[in-house]
Amino acid sequence: MYFYLIIALQAFCIYHVIKHRNPYYWIFLIFFIPLLGSVIYILTQVYNKRDADKITSGITNIINPTKKIRDLEKKLEFSETYQNRVNLADAYLEIGDNEKALKHYKDALEGNFQNDFYVIKNMIEAFTKIEDYKSVVTHAEHIKSHPEFVKSRTQFLYGLALEREGKLEEAEENLKAIDVRFSFYNERLVYAQFLLNINKKVEAQSILESLISEGQYMTKPNKKIYGATIADAKKLLESL
């Protein structure tokens, strides 16, 4: 239990560093001196009386995510509001219970929020995870005119769903939108594989070369996150 508490504390501190764009040397301190580094970071960069409850809650949710679910269920029972239901759906999505997440998202949309981009975007994530590609396409087409849809992960998932439905030209059009330098590393690798599948070797090779080149300029934290993706891009390029 002590070990998991330290891991949770580290995860919270690193998340806080990235979210608030604090200097990255904190990540090394937290990583290499787990307990002391985390405590120093919290005392100097995070902690004040107003934040104490948030810190405790965040760590508790990492250790025991089902407690967060129970708390949100009680909150919804007490006050059945749109936001409380969406918060509960989000929590189910976080732990991978996609069916329950979808149920609550659908219930939320039955009111006056049929075109809520945030909710439909999350529903598309859940439908993708359960491989219900027809529903991905249907819901994406409700929000594809929204400005936040363009060049987003949601558009990428829409493109993948169109591929599964055999609509290759439309799929390519939407997958191509996420080919943006220094972003969407995982998605662009998938896009490169898609291009190879439809015999567009030159275009796929260009994307793979860009990924490998960009990998050389990544910060150390990003290399930890996307290092495997860049390695896979190198392997795929070498296989061509």
UniProtKB/TrEMBL annotation:
Coiled coil: none annotated. Residues 67-191 form the 26S proteasome regulatory subunit Rpn7 N-terminal domain. The chain crosses the membrane at residues 24-44. TPR repeats lie at residues 82-115. SUPFAM superfamilies: TPR-like. Keywords: Membrane, TPR repeat, Transmembrane, Transmembrane helix. It holds the Pfam family RPN7. This is 26S proteasome regulatory subunit Rpn7 N-terminal domain-containing protein.
